[in-house]
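Class prep. Write one:
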Amino acid sequence: MTRLALYGESFPLAQTFTISRGSKTTAEVFVVELSRDGHTGRGESVPYPRYDETIVGATAAIEALRPRIEAGTLNRASLQDALSPGAARNALDCALWDLEAKLSGQPVHQLAGLCTPHSVTTAYTLSLAAPEAMGQAAAVNADRPLLKIKLGGDGSDLDRIEAIRANAPDATLIVDANEGWSAPQVEPLSAELAQRGVALIEQPLPAGQDALLAELEHPVPLCADESCHTTSDLEALATRYECVNLKLDKTGGLTEALLLVTKAKELGLELMVGCMVATSLAMAPAALLAPQARYVDLDGPLLLKQDREHGLHYDGSLLHPPQTDLWG
């Protein structure tokens, strides 16, 4: 028999985190634990209101599968049909991978046919704020090689970039509008951001307006985030974006994420491996995919007041692979 435990946890943030849709002061995460033969596998996700997800809903979805889970008749393959992509499936899928690794004595990267993970440079996110405040935040983090800038589409975005560039002249900049721009803003803002050396623009328009991007000039490459969930999204996205942001909470776990990586490469799409604001337990599975990505954005634990025990090790912006006492 497999024992199943489900619970939510709250981790205070080091400071308020703001994007175009709103602000948060805590990371609310959902954890699945699977125990068998003296070993426990864990998975963590973030049920996201943008996708109508809650911890209560994730709990109910997995509770409906409890008989199959505890009987051992639900595996990673059958899970893909049993639950829709999203946070609930992600936590359970990652717990299944972790448990299999511990029972077999093989690390997840070997089970998944991945290369041995190595250290990678992660972006560090600057929360949306007034230009002066974002410039000050950039000054504090000027030694980080890759900064991700939250923008708002409110008429002050270029002022924000000017302030950040003045205080972090050597950093590579990625900007993330989180669906906050309108179609008429895309061409002029992209042109201006190109002149300021911005490397990538994430999700400028609401996901439902993606088709417009195919007709808009954008000298800065575009990256799909809210529009990119699973492999089935990629064919359409390849005509509108140059890059996709892979997040396990959207793919519904590492199992689907592995397929998405392969398909994205076939279509010539660049990859970003991203995250929600969560602990190292949520970052660890994604860290195995990071070596295959052009951009890595796995800074969630850096935004917390305190990470969970056995958390990932960060040397500035250099992210080291997870240890097995955390996951995998």
In short: The chain has a mean pLDDT of 97.
